[in-house]
Amino acid sequence: MTLQLTHTDLRAAADIVEEIQQLKRERNAVLLAHNYQYGEIQDIADFVGDSLGLSQAAAQTDADVIIFCGVHFMAETAAILCPEKTVLLPDLKAGCSLAATIDAEQLRAWKAEHPGAVVVSYVNTTAEVKAESDYCCTSGNAVRVIEAIPPDREILFLPDMFLGSYLRQVTGRPLQIWAGECHVHAGIKPEMVNAMHAEYPDADFMIHPECGCVSSYMHFLARGRVSDKNTHIFSTEGMIRHAERSPASQFVVATEIGVLHRMRKANPEKEFIPISESTSCHFMKMITLDKVLHSLRELVYPVTVPADVAARARLSIERMVAL
Ligand code: 13P
Ligand code: SF4
């Protein structure tokens, strides 16, 4: 009984994938997937990557339709960079708790308190917030973006406080930081990392800068109280590159569990251990094969950005992509 059901499910999934591939060709569509997507979505994507890589892939594609398997702000970024293309998000409820921590009105009020400051927004923001920003950045290039700003300028960094405090430590710049956090990463506490260090003393540790453990890790590191020899802070794509290059055979991964799929596929001889099996983003996991098929069949759900907002937001994103 169980075997039969599994076989039926597999057959149904294979049929869905075949129809998705056929519709992609008919519609001249490209499927972009974030590293946190389900493995089955990553496996059928034309490009899988971090926020920076996805922005670059969207900017470069010559497809007519972009099926964005990620969350809303990522699809919006693609729509801003490709106003002439149709950008589809298979489920409009795929939001981001971090992007929801600040809106354009709150940012305008913050800017009014700091006249002349340069505003650097993490890519996890709405198009309207990007339109109020001078620079956009991702975890893959945030240090470079901060270092590109003249040292005498005050900087407002938003919306992630853990990434902000990491940047303060690394660049030595006295950033003003918005007190936002991602509910998934904020839950990765220093105690969890310490417990894993004790259990896997020889493993390489890879930590996303949005994690709740990053500030204390940097704090202890600055005081020489933890060894940094096998602990690294990376964007999701940086983690995947490190997993391939490092001679270590065991890795502890502190970010959303979807990222382990590519690591395991590319490095079958290495062991990848999630910091916790429950570190999962339910927004990312709203995108399923069924919804991707529906999206391609019906051309839903288009993500658009008003032209005036897009024009202003594009400046901040293009400054980032150029760096
Ligand atoms: P990356 O840019 O590292 O892929 O991170 C995006 C994100 O949403 C992290 O939660
Ligand atoms: Fe947003 Fe956090 Fe999900 Fe990333 S993991 S998309 S920051 S809610």
Q: What summary fits the major beta sheet?
A: 4 strands, parallel
Taken from the alpha-carbon principal axes, the silhouette is globular
Provide the residue-averaged pLDDT: 93
CATH architecture assignment of the largest domain = 3-Layer(aba) Sandwich
What would the CATH topology of the largest domain be? Answer: Rossmann fold
Order of helices and strands: HEHEHEHEHEHEHEHEHHEHEHEHEHH
The helix content is: 40-55%
Distance between the termini: 56 Å
Q: CATH first level of the largest domain: which class?
A: Alpha Beta
CATH level-four homologous superfamily name of the largest domain: NadA-like
Annotation field: number of helices: 15
Structural class: alpha/beta
Widest beta sheet: strand line-up: 2-1-3-4
Total number of β-strand segments?
A: 12
Bound molecules: 1,3-dihydroxyacetonephosphate, iron/sulfur cluster
